Give the backbone structure.
Amino acid sequence: MQNENETPKSNELNKKIARATKWSSVTELATKLIAPLVAMVLARLLAPEAFGVVATITMVISFAEIFTDAGFQKYLIQHEYKDKKELDQSTNVAFWTNFGVSLLICFGIFLFRHDIAKAVGSPELGNSLSVASLLIIVAAFSSIQMARYRRAFDFKTLFYARIIGALIPVFVTIPLAVWLRNYWALLIGTMVGQTFTAAFLTIKSEWKPAFYYCFRQLKEMFAFSMWTLLESISIWLTGYVDIFIVGTYLNDYYLGLYRTSIVTVGSFMAIITGAVTPVLFAALSRWQNDEQEFKNTYNLFQRTTAVLVVPMGIGVYLFSDFVTRVLLGDQWLEASEFIGLWGLTSAFLILFSHFSSEVFRSKGNPKISLCVQLLHLIFIAPTMLATINFGFETLYTARALIRIQLLASAVFFVCWLYKFCLLDMLKNVAPATVSALVMGAVGWGCLTISEHMLWQCVAIAICIVVYFATLFTCFPKIRREVFETRYGKKIVARLDAVGGRFRRRSA
């Protein structure tokens, strides 16, 4: 039934947002389930050195791609246009700007490929960098097309593009890894996947590039996108400065261990967060002018997400050897403790730092996110440089623990600027944290009995039962929130039906 206060236009928009949220959630869940499976196979076919080489190349290419987009994608999504003609004109300006900049950057990388390779600590990768730079041109096509689809809430088409793109490694990268046994398998697979995605989105799109350009529109777009561009650069710096330092001071083997550990945990956690974050952003954006509903929505998402990510983080930390063996194989065991620490800190970083970033963005204030990222960067670089000579274990321990500073900074700004209550946040995650600690104690006890792989499978099952038993017994509010949803009621109804049949048969 339509709300009396809603106009037909707003009602239709809400329906579009709901459909977009559904397809976005399905897309993230599906792709994040495929990626770890592919990674499990590739980690057994290729040595850590191959992943280290690709990490270095990705660091350079991803930085260049920030400038080719220049924040135009978000401008096209957020800006209000008078008509479709004006939208198409802005899209053409954004596309040709991206395309021109991407050509210039590719040419620059080709000319200075050996100097760039030396600068990132891998002088032998010059030619590989020049080949990989073609991805920048591909990104110029896909970036603008994605903006048009997202603006129209057409996440269904993006779903098909992402799914097929995620399956490309199954048919390209894995066979090449079997044949080549080096980093070229990963590089070629990435290029094929991104090229296909760009071609698919362009063919399906109603908008096609046309020869139109206006410097006045470019000026307006860049004035809006400047802060978004700076935020993207800061996020890149915090995400890759440690990669640069490890690649410069250590070898490709340790760089592969380091980067793959981070990516593995990220893919594992993103099974949950990839589905939750788009929904959270959409919901917060709708309530940005209603402070009470805004905070209620934030608290609900944080509390329910904690139910899943906190036990995942503690579980990865506790069973890090098991997770490493299953997802990557025995040759990666040197990184198992890092995977455990990164998983543990990721759980709480998601709930406090990542969710706070969604608050900043939904309020239209990327400058705050930029400040948080730059502040974190000030801590990362000295920490990495101070510990790099004390061994790989000291290095990754310090890097994982320094994330606490990022968490603290994000919480400080969200409480100071938007009057969030830290006590409410802690209460939100307390049920999941307490239950997960009980689970962790039981899991630790199980591991003292035996560390055999089969027994660890049994121990993990025991931990899951203990966690949910503790959560639903000691925290009835969480139990009500889970089982009072539409799907929760269906579960309860089915359990009641099964119980009724069982009682009738017994009688």
Remarks:
- Confidence is low (pLDDT under 50) at residues 1-10, 486-499.
